[in-house]
Amino acid sequence: PILYSYFRSSCSWRVRIALALKGIDYDIVPINLVKDGGQQYSKEFETLNPMKQVPTLKIDGITITQSNLSILKKVGQETQLAWAQAVISSGFKALESVLQSTAGKYCLGNEISMADLCLVPQVANAERYKVDLSPYPTITRIYKTLLTVEAFQVSHPSRQPDTPPELRA
Ligand SMILES: N[C@@H](CCC(=O)N[C@@H](CS)C(=O)NCC(=O)O)C(=O)O
């Protein structure tokens, strides 16, 4: 698998967490969303993902351009079936409800759900922008606990191949 990713992109981080939880080895091709006016706008990348966004995951002979679909693809047969039915029957609106209803339900391993997986990058962004998280002690506790899990650590924005030296941890 190849993941087109930007170290700081929360959507990319979600997919990196899922791949790490599932123990899937993959290569990263960094797409810098800022440099050169945004490498996501290059002709080469546009051919791969006409939405011109990361993450983009090449896996099992297909290219997936939505982070949640990339994650679902690896969650399990049952979820994939629900996903396929939703897309076939009524398009992406239904997919949203599948994602919502499966978010807390399907574990990716270590009792970690899609909801947990989505929470961590969002809270990290909140921290980055100095949002006061004191009214949300439960979220903060879950966030801190999840950050002790290896899959969240290895996929962290501070440890990516394209992380600038001054932001490395
Ligand atoms: N629905 C998409 C959203 C992807 C997305 O918004 N990616 C952002 C980074 S987190 C991006 O590539 N932004 C570049 C741009 O908009 O130019 C997903 O979940 O994968």
From TrEMBL:
Any Gene Ontology CC annotation: cytoplasm
Places the protein is found: Cytoplasm
The keyword Cytoplasm is annotated on this UniProt entry: yes
Pfam families the UniProt entry points to: GST_C_3 (PF14497), GST_N (PF02798)
EC number in record: 2.5.1.18, 5.2.1.2
Ranges for domain GST N-terminal: 1-82
Similarity comment: family membership: Belongs to the GST superfamily. Zeta family.
Name of the protein in question: Maleylacetoacetate isomerase
Organism whose genome encodes this protein: Monodelphis domestica
Lineage: Eukaryota, Metazoa, Chordata, Craniata, Vertebrata
